[in-house]
Each structure stands twice: as structure tokens, then as C-alpha cells.
Amino acid sequence: MANSSAGATRHNSQRLRVQRRRRGSVAGMITFLAITGSFVLVAAFLVILSRGNAHDDGKATPLTGVAPDFTLPSVNGEPMTLSSYKGQRNVLLYFNEGYGCAPCWKQAQDIETRSAELQAANTEFVNIMVDPPDLIKGEVTRWNLTMPVLSDTDRTVSEQYNMLGFGMHADKPNHTFVFVDEAGDIRWWQDYPSMRAATDDIVEKVQELNAGG
To answer: How many domains does the chain have?
Structure first.
């Protein structure tokens, strides 16, 4: 009887140890998952926060006031400086996704067909994207564009003009026009989330702004 009782005691002890180990494993797993989940949530929060800080919680924020001056290389290798137009002409800047965005290139092509009307409104049409010149040069040829096409590869100008942090690509402009008058002031800043603006509307807006509207 004593041996039987001792055996039962050892068996119960072993069973308790197994149960403790199982409970410890489950608790450890829960703790691990909780810590891992916390890291994931923190990482997601930081991503959202960084995007929000980059551009008003992902919303397009129009820029006003004096237009930041810049000098950017064009696809033909010649740099263009915005302030070189000051006191002489208005400039219509067109920031867009660039390479791989057919609607962007088509928009530029359609507006260029109205170049005579833009010239009559004393306005230069300038296309800006963040792709390297070598990458977009072929597209410029393919779409038969003659307007200045500038490359903002380090995104400095795009950031100055509030072009990043919204749209389909957080690191690229969306589909946005900026009208800088000959005094060097921003008179109009408009993003088109649909990736398409009516060419008539753009031309009429330029004419209105040039007339002092």
C-alpha cells in the first residue's frame, strides 16, 4: 500500500509539472504574440505618422505666396531656373507622376496642342517629374513633346511645392498644376485626383489669371 501511495504521489507530481510547463508555454506564447503585435502596431503607426507629417495626413495642401525658386535640369540637358521668367512671363508648372503614367503624358500632349493660346496669355508651360532624365527622355520623344520637361530626382522642388505625400505614390507628385505669375507669386495651385483635367478648363484658367482674375 505504501509503495502504491508513493507511486500515486510521484505520478501526481509529474502531472502537475507537465501542466505547469504547458501553462508556462502558453503564457510565453501569449506574451510573445503580444510583444510582436505591439511592434507591428507601433511600426504601422510610425508609417502613418510619417506620411501624415509629410503632407497633411495624405491630403493635398495648396501652396500660396511667393513661389520657391529653383533650377532643374531638363531632358535635353539644359537647366531651367524659375526666376529667369520673373518680370517677363507667367509659368504654368505641371507636376505629375511621370514615367509609366500614360494619362500624365497625354495631359501634357493635349495642353501642348494649345500652346498658341498659352503663348498669347504670356505663359510658359513646364512639365516637372521626379524620374531621371535618361528614363523620361524616351517618353518625351514618344509623345512628341517640345515644352520644357524637368527632372526633380531628389524631390527637393516637389517637396517645396507640397507635391509629395498624397495621391497613388507617396514619393511622387500626383497630377497638379501651379500657376506662377510674372511677379513670381503663386496665383493658383490645383490637384486633380482623377489624373485628368479638362484641357479647356486649364487653358481658360490660365487666360483668366493672366487677365488679372
So the answer is: 2
